[in-house]
Amino acid sequence: MIKIKNSRSSCPVSTALEIVGDPWSLILIRDLFLERTTFSDFRSAPEKISTNILTDRLKKLLQLGLIGYVNNPKNKKIKVYYLKDRGIDLYPLIYELSMWSKKHLDMEFHPLAVDWYEAIKGKAPKKVISDIAQGYRGFRKELINEMAS
Question: What are 75's strand-pairing partners?
């Protein structure tokens, strides 16, 4: 459990938004689901997060136990980030935001999003969410094992 101190509200929605309500935190969590794992990977995402904000959000997500990291064995200066279980548990929120956007936003989506929408077309939301979470856990296990070798 994440220990909450000095919350401005006892509302669960308000408090959750204090944790992941800024756009960058959810973008980083989304990027981890997309198997982006390094500072450079995050910087090369289409949103172009600045280095100071990226550093701040990574520290915040680490402190909250939403993400972890291992050092790359080939270059100890490179941290390889991954989602912890409580970070993976945010996937339904990312899924629902994506589906809301598809339904309500009149815009051209990134090709990755278009491909994803096509791949999940007709599938039950619970199945998509479960498959993505399970797939990420497998990816995380392989990633950590690879970094340990």
Answer: 72
Contact 74, 148 (CB under 8 A): no
Tens digit of each residue's pLDDT (9 = 90 or more) over 53-77? 999 999 999 999 999 999 999 999 9
The CATH number linked to 79 is 1.10.10.10
Residue 99's domain comprises: 12-148
Q: Count of domains in the chain?
A: 1
For residue 50, the 8-state DSSP code is -
CA distances from 64 to 7, 34, 51, 61, 88 (A): 14, 21, 20, 5, 13
pLDDT computed for residue 149 by the predictor: 79
Stretch 76-96: mean pLDDT: 96
- More confidently predicted of 22 and 5: 22
Whether the CB-CB separation of 91 and 129 falls below 8 Å is answered with yes
Residue 1 domain-assigned?
no
Q: How far apart are CA 78 and CA 72, in angstroms?
A: 5
- Would 5 be classed as within a structural domain? no
Pick from 109, 101, 87: nearest CA to 30: 87
Q: Is residue 91 part of a domain?
A: yes
CA distance 11 to 95: 23
